[in-house]
Specification:
Elements: E1 7-10, H1 20-34, H2 40-44, H3 51-59, H4 68-86, H5 96-107, E2 111-115, H6 121-127, E3 136-138, H7 151-160, E4 167-171, H8 174-182, E5 186-190, E6 202-204
Parallel strand pairs: 1-2, 1-4, 2-3, 4-5, 5-6
Length: 214
């Protein structure tokens, strides 16, 4: 066990599993209904940020202004559609590599947590059979500020009872890398989109590569 690091905090979507297609389908349904152009390139801008922040990006393409009440209705409508789609998820949506790596980290004595902006994190973890791997979960229900604010990771560290500087964060989005560094944590970048992030500490070639650095 790395003497300096005592815990690993994982982003959920894009790290432990992938729900991008469900987010895209749910947001696309809203955008289509409102007559707003939306494609996968715009969807990529939504990674790692809150539901309301995502909605604001989508509404940039709109030719009219919406009230806060209308936006809240859209956000709830999207979430209802998204939750319906998430019911398709199963243990197959979490790879053997991820499971084996998490098991080995626990064997080595690390505390493990999830730090996700999603308010559906607990549901997703149950769907993919991953709840037992984690000592704590901090999600969108625990925070008021989304990444790159470090709140969700600081909340996860607090729930673990581990100092932020003794936590590693594994992220696939630049906003998450910046949040980890803002929280005085070590940032491991997983995936091509963040490999060239100037703020990351380590580039992971694969999920199991975590074991080579801890």
């Amino acid at each position: 066990m790395n003497r300096e690091m005592k815990a690993v905090i994982f982003d959920l979507d894009g790290v432990l599993c992938f729900t991008d297609k469900y987010h895209y389908q749910a947001w696309k349904a809203i955008a289509d209904r409102l007559g707003i152009y939306f494609d996968e390139k715009i969807n990529d801008r939504l990674r790692g940020i809150s539901r309301m922040a995502s909605l604001e990006i989508i509404l940039e393409k709109s030719d009219r202004q919406y009230t806060l009440e209308e936006k809240e209705v859209f956000a709830e409508e999207k979430n209802a559609q998204y939750q319906k789609l998430l019911q398709q998820m199963s243990e197959k949506d979490m790879s053997d590599e991820v499971r084996q790596t998490l098991a080995e980290l626990r064997h080595r004595g690390y505390r493990l947590a999830v730090g996700s902006s999603s308010k559906n994190a607990q549901f997703i973890l149950r769907q993919i059979g991953a709840v037992s791997y984690f000592d704590a979960v901090a999600d969108g229900n625990d925070i008021t500020k989304s990444k790159p604010d470090p709140e969700v990771f600081l909340k996860a560290a607090e729930k673990l009872g581990i100092a932020p500087e003794q936590c590693v964060v594994v992220e696939d989005a630049d906003s998450g890398i910046r949040a980890a560094k803002a929280g005085n944590m070590t940032a491991y970048a997983l995936g091509g989109d963040v490999r060239y992030s100037g703020e990351k500490d380590v580039n992971l070639l694969s999920f199991s590569d975590i074991l080579n650095y801890l």
